[in-house]
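Record format v2
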Amino acid sequence: MKSGAKRWLTIVIVLIAIVSAFSGHFNRYYLGIGIDIGINIILAVSLNLIMGHTGQFSLGHAGFMAVGSYTAASFTIACAKHAPESAAPFLLLGGLIIGGLMAAICGLAVGVPTLRLRGDYLAIVTLGFGEIIRVIFQNMEAVGAASGLTGIPNYTNFFWAWAAAAITIYVVTSLVNSTYGRGFIAVHDDEVAASAMGINPTRYKVTAFVVGAFFAGIAGGLYAHHKTVLAPTGFDFMKSFEIVVMVILGGMGRTVGVIIAAILLTVLPEMLRPVAEYRMIIYSLLIIIIMMARPQGLFTLKRSKGANA
Amino acid sequence: MSTPLLQLDKVTIRFGGLMAVSTLDFQVQENDLVGLIGPNGAGKTTVFNLITGVYQPTEGTIQFAGSPTANRKPHQLTKVGIARTFQNIRLFASLSVFDNVRAAMQVHRSHGVRQALWRGKAYQAAEKEVNDRVMELLEIFKLGRLRDEDAKNLPYGDQRRLEIVRALATQPKLLLLDEPAAGMNPTEKAELAGLIRSIKERFKIAVLLVEHDMQLVMNLCERITVLDYGVKIAEGTPTEIKRHPKVIEAYLGEEQPA
């Protein structure tokens, strides 16, 4: 258990920076998909903390993402007028963090009163929350209401998306693999036994929700500055389902599997573009087939043991 | 006599119209080995749930180490020194043997989210200390070689033992064992009796044992309390209990007048 994890994170981020420096030479279409993949990894890995590790079925992840994206976009739009071009990375970073924090506050607000609910009941409540968020944005004139928020500066590049993804993976795995973090899985396995072992289930569930929501907010901010246009309909429950499918397909609580599933489910619809109108049918069929062939998840190595992440 | 480690004072709990436990007085001294027995449905497990804070008594008070346990949650009571096992084993099924014990070590640690993310020197040292402690405990109970096995894959007897190790990892002053011999054969039961005795000696803790198996309790415990329909019907040494007419009646039924 050397402190290797932090060094790895640094190395990975440097590599991402190098790749990103040459991103001008890449095909813009592929680059766009690459950024989408990074964002989806953040969403899936953060939901995996809530759903896979802690066992709280949440259908509100798109809601947290929406909070993050609208907050971050409003921030950069407001600031970009007064700031020089070179300040862009700082504006984005500021927007992401503020968006993440807003989403985390929402996570806390949803988490505290509802986490006594279990399973299906929690799923329905979080689904309701996600819809409330969407409807609020749909009616908020300041952020463009139903016609959406436009004119968001295009700040997100390959570096930001993938560096944020690397940080998300680092945070979630470091947390879960620590002695403290084994409590998340303990709560998932048996809440009664967990509390008899001195683990406070409510505390852990709220922590998972807040951390998960924070990163969903970051992903939302990146998404906003990648697409440069936000429509409230993009954050409906279908989006939440999409993230849930990534987690289930990857294998609940299996970080590597979830990452692979996030990549696969981002690339697959793009690869199926040639078949046009059959696209979504084939996409859904493939998900059904994968689920039937590997109900335990795509990639189920044994969960990492010990403290070495 | 000093203040008892655990003291139940006229504890009553009702579930709707059902009086599950009624005005129960009961004590456990430090480093005591006490048995709680009774026929099915006598309220033994309910007493456990009252002591560990799963239920709150309708009337009466429970004191642990001199302070009342009222309104404290199970995880808070674990922190002050009450640990338990469950009648139907409740391990963390998807965690390894090692991690089952490790998860229980967190209760006395201050390292949380921040340290886990920063991974500083102090954190690394603390994590290593936890690892060493866990391995030490596992070795004592001969579970060391199974450390990476998922808890759900262990044989039954090992699962029971692991549950006890996990409870001990919280460094309790009082260990509650809920029918630890359930489903064991005579050899395993004999082993278990030795194990419980050695835990008491080695860790210097009090053990409260709920058990069906009369022989085990009679062999092991210094004092026994007998419950029937939520009421204490007898209390005393094993020899006294064996002869107690009310106990015989509760277990065997009343003798019909000829």
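Chain B touches chain A at residues 52, 54, 73-75, 78-79, 83-84, 86, 90-96, 98-99, 102-109, 111-113, 115-117, 119, 124, 126-128, 130-131, 148, 166-167, 169-170 (CB under 8 Å).
The domain at 6-81+172-252 of chain B is CATH 3.40.50.300 (Rossmann fold).
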